[in-house]
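As described in the Methods, two query proteins were run sequentially through the folding procedure within a single session, without resetting any intermediate state between them. The first query and its resulting structure tokens are shown here.
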Amino acid sequence: MLASADAPLAERARYYKQALSLILSVRRPSYYLGQDTAALADLTNSYLRRMASEGAIARSLADAALAVPLEIRKRAGASPVIDFTRQKGINLARTRLLSLLDVRSLYELDRLDLSVRTSLDVEVQRGVADFLRSLAKPEVITELGLTGARLLRANDPGKVIYSLTLYERGHGYNRLRINADNLDQPLDINAGAKLDLGSTAKLRTLISWLELIAGAYDRYRVMSSAELAAVDVHPRDRLSAWVIAHLQANRGADLRSTLESAMRRQYSASTAQRFYTGGGVHTFANFERADNGRVLTVAEALRRSVNLVFIRVMREVIDHYMYRAPSTTARLLENASDPARGDYLRRFADREGTVFLRRFYEKYRGKTRDEALGTLLDGVRVTPRAVVVALRSVWPDMQAADLAPWMARYVPDEQYTPAALDSLFNRYPPEKFNLNDRGYLARVHPLELWLIDYLLGHPGRARGRSDRRLCRCAPGGLSLVDENQPAQSAGPAHPRPAGNRSLPGIAPAMATARLSVRLADPFDRDLDRQFRRSARGARGIDGHHRQWWHAFSGTPDRGPALCRRHALRNCLRGYSGRG
């Protein structure tokens, strides 16, 4: 407009004056554009006269602009209403481009000069979005027959959100054709929400179950009747047992007929049973109470979405994975005479202990005693008992008076007299509690106390080590080893006052009983007797071992009072921290 000589002078003057006023308002935008627009008009007119007098603009343009009043809009015009349902495909493409182009924000993306082609079918996408949006109208719901029982008869259909994703299968890849929903918000239900629906979970369970049946069919279909009868199937592997029985009764059955027969298998829908899962004991309910006493086929349960049938199918899948092979852990643990149990326990203890010790070693190496104790106590919910037990576990020559600054730092709300500190100090001597008990009282992992105590006694092993050094725990002590070098003994513990029973002091004698401790099977009496003999032999060396013996077999007064399961629990508690 301004550059066109053919444009009307009045129009050119009006636009010129508006552009000039905006440039001048930059000096004080909130004042000129908000508080005093008349002052901006006067300033603009003065510049027009000055520019005309100096020949910067034509006199005719200046006179025409001076004659035009300066109009400033008080508020911005209403933004056009955005239909977000029509933007889902475009926004999905823009979001994917952020990662493809390594752009940090949509703001930066919108400033790139580029053209993008997608696999989305624009016309079909628009039609699907319009149809999903129309489902908010009651008359459309009625026309589609969606007003039956448990559908949309008594509900507002406008509150239901629908989404659809459609891919077209190609050679080696799938093309996204439709990405639509009826939510009139920027959120993309398909790409930005994670849906976990009961019916889809049933479908996933069914697919997994049928795949396992197909796999079992492939393994057993080539066997003769005699070979099928000789297969060792665990009683809890009901899936393999059914496939074998089906093949024995239907020689020559193909995969399709086998899967169809599997869909006709019957399961109880009873809700009376409790199921043990990773989250504990659970009970489940059916959608229809009338199904609680029924026995249904898998096909009927899928059609009617009966929960308990699929809970039992899921349990069958789990049991199949646990018991299908003779060497599975589940079979090993239930067979008390299996010699591999001891090896399994040893590997478990090694792995768990190594994980925790490596973590604690990186946390405490190179620290002084006060730094290590500060790091330890800063990471737990501190109580007076926890402070005392933690300090005394790693500070062998500590006195009651040394407690005062630590109690003032970590328990500032408590006021202790010297007599109270002395009483608290004498209440928790380390020789009175084993390592597990001290870890419990201090609210920390027992191995954390043990490692701090060891590193303080072996400063040469705690400093100057490369990160490739590993921590490995054994009941005989701690070994710091290179990944490519064999483990070496940690050596003798640092000197301790007489009567102190911190863990590093028991290393030599515990090495004697190491094999028994590490391999003791809580359900094997022969190994248990060997374990006790080794422990009794080690017990007489010094007072440290009496504490260790108490942890596994009870007190001398009561004899071996603790059962073997309790002994195993105490053994593993120090490794896994799950006690």
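Immediately afterward, the second query was submitted; its sequence and tokens are:
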Amino acid sequence: MPATPEREHLSDALPAVASTALRVAFGIVWVVDAVLTFSPEFASHYVGYLHNAAHGQAAWSGWWFDMWIAIVTPHATLFIWLTRVAESALALALIFGFARKTVYVLGALFSLLIWSTAEGFGGPYALGATNMGAAIAYVLIFVALIVINYRAGTSPYSVDYLIEKRWPAWRRVSEWAKDQGRPDVPHRISWRLQVGALVGVALLVFFLVAGLQSSLHVTAPSPAAAAAAVSPLSLASSQPLAQARDATLPPLTPGPVAKVTLTVTDRDVEIASGVRYTAWTYNKTVPGPIIHVLQGQTVEVTLINHGTMDHSIDFHAAQVAPNEDFVDIPPGKSLHFSFVAEVPGAFIYHCETAPILLHMGNGMYGALIVSPKKPLPPAAESYVLVQSEWYTQQLSGKLMTANYPRMLAKRPDEVVFNGMAFQYDDHPLPVTAGQRVRIYFVDAGPDDWTSFHVIGSMFEDVYPGGDLSQPIHDVSAYSVGPGAGAIFDLTIPKPGTYAFVDHDFANLMIGAKGEFVVHAPGATLPKASQPAAFSTDPDPATPAASSAAGPTAPAAAAPTPAASSQAASAAAPAATAVAAAPTGPYHFDPAQGTALYAANCAACHQVTGMGVTGAFPPLKGNPAVLDPDPAQQIDTILHGLHGKAIGGAAYAGVMPPFGDKLNDSEIANIVNHERSSWGNQAKQVTPQQVAKLRAAGK
């Protein structure tokens, strides 16, 4: 039966309608992609996606990722905006049908670039799941649009059609076909085009086969994977650290009593050149201040908690009842106790609060040096080195935070002397040739042993314990375990540059290396590293160091020797008064929610919301977070929580109250961040709901 004119018209129109529908639908996908590029999370982890893709690559492709990481890292902001502009332009061009021929080619090339960089050549195969790289799928769709454009010619459903009616030359950037509509007789494809097509197919087959390793080993490019893939050293500036931590042993405190005041604060500290970490600190530094006392002196300790959770302190040089003196104190409180430094040596002090691994891994440790009553042989220079590890994940830009799974797995991102990677390479420690230099060494860990060694020299004496009359002589390298300390004496006869290292070379490669610059006697020595961690303290109201490095006024009166060794009392305010909530209608600000969560919650509950096993519960999928009634979630943030089973599991960590630190809008932003992150989808809350529960709990 012959077709009616209507059917013929419909048949003629269908290809144009179908191709337009595909193009517009694909454009909508690109609109969503483009909008997501403007999220703070995308910008924060932009470089991380490259590092994540580089992990697990075959040897043949490693150079490609190294090149892109080197190009993008110093200019991340520029590339972020280039990506935003490119995706936005592609989205608009697809939806409106603008310059289709050119856009399809550029879109395919752009998608290939994304597939071969951020997606790590992700292919269509994976163990137990379909893992087709989105970008390679985009390439195939662009190729389909190119074929349709070539065969169908001008589409009346496009901006190109309107432009071509006025300027026919526009077809050069919008069409391949020379004739309007689909030709009646298919054109024979030239050998030139056939060879090109065969080469393209061969390349596609190569990348699909060669990308098998990438698909099986490269983690999917999620924000969590990107954050975990970035190391602080990969983000570090090529410029040297502006200033190093002063390693010089401070003078003794005169008199029978050494008063030590340590204040706990949450603070960002530099751990590599230009890279910072959200640490928990004693006196705003990591490690905490060097404390130097004399054997037999009474050490009176005042610990003030200006942090956001419970903390404590454990002195390895103290012989006291830990259940009385090494106890947790909540924010805003202080603790006082005393002990006699009976044993000489180099000792660690650290936070004892569970989980200890997290507290120490977050920076809560320092060195206590107890000099013997009978002095050791005099030394021309005396330095204190505290070796420790950083376990990190990217919080945003060049700001890192704790990575508890890496702590448990003993996979440090940095191993450092006195808190910063390679700082004594940038600022070597001066030593006089032919004269004794003494190193008080503490391994703070929290996980790794060290084999301390000075390249090109020998330790004359090593004092591993409290009996300093029996040193070990003539040692090339000596191992110190986590939590232990030792004293090293050496004399370097010839001027030159001598590296001191952890002879575990994996640790050396990620920061455990410094240098002694040895000068002839009488030569002008370079000025030692300035004590930047103390002298540039922006908050002079907080004690800059313990009284062992110079007298300070304790924030609360220390007890008399006859008094109880422990007292918990109100300390100076842990923070300024709660800021007034903003006026006007409330609108959830995702960027502010992310920042508030990072500053107050991420160290314990982790950036991924997965919590810390046995210590802090996960927020991802947490029933209280997903509950349409937010009362329990808000009340926990306002008033804290401890000892209550969550999801049938017990957690040892203490959730401190934030009601006296954050206003209603800030708490609402944190709650809404938790309710909309990590796959959580729960009803948002308002500051009015927070205010109501705050009033009810008073």
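DSSP finds 25 helices and 22 strands in the chain. We note this only descriptively and draw no conclusion about the first query from it.
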